[in-house]
Please model this.
Amino acid sequence: MGELKKEVDELSGVETTGHEWDGLKELNNPLPKWWLYIFYASIVWSIGYWIVMPSWPLVSSYTAGVIGYSQREVATREFDTAMAERAETGSKLLEASLDEIRSTPELLEFAMASGSAAFADNCAPCHGTGATGFVGYPNLQDDVWIWGGTMDDIAQTISYGVRSEHEDTRFGEMMAFGRDEILNKEEIAAVANYVAANLAGSTPEEGADLALGETVYVDNCAACHGDEGLGSPELGAPNLTSPNYLYGNSVEAIEAQVFSPRHGVMPPWIDRLGETTVKSLAVYVHSLGGGQ
Ligand code: HEC
Ligand code: HEC
Model:
């Protein structure tokens, strides 16, 4: 390699580096002072940072730095604090009455958030994401309750289920009037038409014997569903004047139910979800529309 020839550029009076490309020569201007200072300052800063903070990877660990900072520890500490706060709010929730929950924004917010999350995870498959139910799975948005609509009623239904394997389950069964030959075909048709016409507000068949239907109802049904058809939460006998029938309010649907009832099953949740989540769910379900 020949020695590079330094020369001074005629126009600017600045020395060139000697590099030349197609007649263009590079001027050897010094670096600006501000740039240099920032450059030196960053070197000093990075050395300081290496010493103070965790920085260099080693074979099986890393240099911890003199202050021993760890993002994992910070995250763990924040998580523990959040869990402790949760547990504290949860135990306050357990002790609070519905009125207290409603008047304490912290509790209400906690219950609604954890209740709606638990509902989406556990209940939506049967009751629907909007809690409006399906055939056989009750609508939880309306103000008609098979098993009662107070906070305590709802919490009990959620805790132990309906016709479930839990020993404290809610239980109530309607007889299979047709299958077990308690009523004959004419009586079943008559009572189904009577329920449709006088309680459900749906259309009876033409020429139906509503007088016979009434007799059959009073003798066989009123004990559980009530004289006026308003149902009984103790027995789990639905309100027959509600528009949201579990199994449909047409004459055929009612006949099918009277012939052979379905006896829907709702699982118990207390052992799976725990008291706090069940209470949150009760607050959430109660708030959906028709809590009593
Ligand atoms: C496997 C399906 C299924 C799942 C999952 C389920 N339920 Fe139910 N639920 C039912 C059935 C069926 C009934 C009606 C039982 C009957 O015939 O009385 C019911 C009834 C209820 C009732 C009583 C309604 C009334 O009118 O009294 C409430 C409240 C309720 N469920 C809440 C919940 C909550 C909250 C969850 C989630 C933790 C849940 N359910 C999960 C099937 C289910
Ligand atoms: C021993 C109490 C009992 C008696 C008596 C009884 N039921 Fe029921 N009924 C229930 C229960 C509990 C249910 C809830 C669903 C189930 O068990 O399948 C129900 C459900 C129904 C339903 C379905 C409601 C819906 O939401 O879809 C109809 C309709 C009905 N009963 C009509 C009658 C008629 C008509 C009679 C008389 C012939 C009668 N029941 C007698 C307890 C009773």
Remarks:
- The CA atoms of residues 72 and 78 lie 10 Å apart.
- The longest helix spans residues 71-95.
- The chain is about 50% helix and 5% strand.
- The mean pLDDT is 92.
